[in-house]
Amino acid sequence: MQTIEITDKLYKEIIAQRKGGESISKVIERNWRSNESEYTLQSTDNKSEALQEINEIRKGKFYTRTQVEKMLKD
């Protein structure tokens, strides 16, 4: 296990996010994993149109059947 130095402000934030007797490393791991998928999609958005479309769907942008048919023809 590695040791890291963090600011007092960050330490207090991590402690505030603990659930019950959860260890600090588990809090960091949980937060990192939940943000990892979002970060991965955001960092690769410019490389893939498919990922851009997924993000559009997440934001609530939907297409009508006619629009989809038109896009498929192009």
Plain-language structure description:
- The protein is 68% helix and 0% strand.
- It has 74 residues and is mainly α.
- The N and C termini lie far apart (54 Å).
Mean pLDDT: 77
Outline the low-pLDDT stretches: none
Beta strands, count: 0
Q: Judging from the principal axes of the Cα atoms, what is the shape?
A: elongated
Determine the fraction of residues in helical runs and give it as a percent range: 55-70%
Query: What count of helical segments does DSSP give?
Result: 4
Provide the gyration radius in Å. Answer: 20 Å
- Tell me the strand percentage band: under 5%
Oligomer: single chain
Q: Main β-sheet: number of strands, strand sense, barrel status?
A: none
Structural class: mainly alpha
The sequence of SSEs as H and E is HHHH
Q: How far is the N terminus from the C terminus?
A: 54 Å
Short synopsis of the structure:
With 74 residues, the protein is mainly α. The chain has four helices and no strands.
Features:
single chain, 74 residues, mainly alpha, 0% strand, elongated
Write the layout of secondary structure elements.
Blueprint: H1 8-16, H2 24-44, H3 49-59, H4 65-73
